[in-house]
Amino acid sequence: xxxxxxxxxxxxxxxxxxxxxxxxxxxxxxxxxxxxxxxxxxxxxxxxxxxxxxxxxxxxxxxxxxxxxxxxxxxxxxxxxxxxxxxxxxxxxxxxxxxxxxxxxxxxxxxxxxxxxxxxxxxxxxxxxxxxxxxxxxxxxxxxxxxxxxxxxxxxxxxxxxxxxxxxxxxxxxxxxxxxxxxxxxxxxxxxxxxxxxxxxxxxxxxxxxxxxxxxxxxxxxxxxxxxxxxxxxxxxxxxxxxxxxxxxxxxxxxxxxxxxxxxxxxxxxxxxxxxxxxxxxxxxxxxxxxxxxx
Length: 295
Prior knowledge:
By secondary structure, this protein is of the alpha/beta class. It contains seven helices and 14 strands. It has helices at about 55-65, 80-85, 85-95, 190-200, 220-240, 245-255, 265-280; strands at about 15, 20-25, 35-40, 45-50, 70-75, 95-100, 130, 135-140, 145-150, 160, 165-170, 205-210, 285, 290. The strands form three sheets. Strands 1-2-3-4-5-6-7 form a seven-stranded mixed β-sheet, covered by helices on one side. Helix 4 (about 190-200) runs antiparallel to helix 5, helix 5 packs across helix 7 (about 265-280) and helix 6 crosses helix 7.
């Protein structure tokens, strides 16, 4: 289950285990909760996971927290700016190698005339020293981290398994406060669900998410998220039967009472479900409308 304690204050270093410390950036919002977490793994010679947003206070807090130690490796889960904005400053200050996800990418090509609604959130300047493939490991004194591809939220998303704790840094794939936004063209619902299934087949128990508190039973949380997506799919199929045929119309029926500011994100999530249903032959698209496919 998700730990219920409030997440640590901004710029406050929190020791979560003998190997793991956390700093939370001061970038709260409807998609970041209290802020984006930066994790420090090890002692003396460290790995840092997700530098966080472009914020001088957060950078200063990280450098203060690691004074007298060496950040040897910076690992990046994915290329949304709340995770990579501080990368340039911390790369320069530490001299660390940057490893992790591939450069910014989409789950599918843009359609004719389609704009990427999350364009501003993507870091197209991100250039790692090395892209990690499935099963690649990086290690330091007392710690070993393994790359675990988890596409879905975005095509290049990686999680990192910490062997010594049988734990997983789950990035935005599994969060400790909310479901994950899956927004085409960057995101893919079919990939997201497959990645949840992948985690259920692994042994890691504790998850360290990029937003929200640590999750003591990660597989239970992953299974909960998978059930949520399956339930949402059934809701979408039902309102399609009732005649709703666009993401916006479906949002009005499925997300009753949703704040107007969040309806755009909800429509993107519905679109991701619809594209997954199209891939599976349950729905087809005609002139911008999504219709059930006759059996």
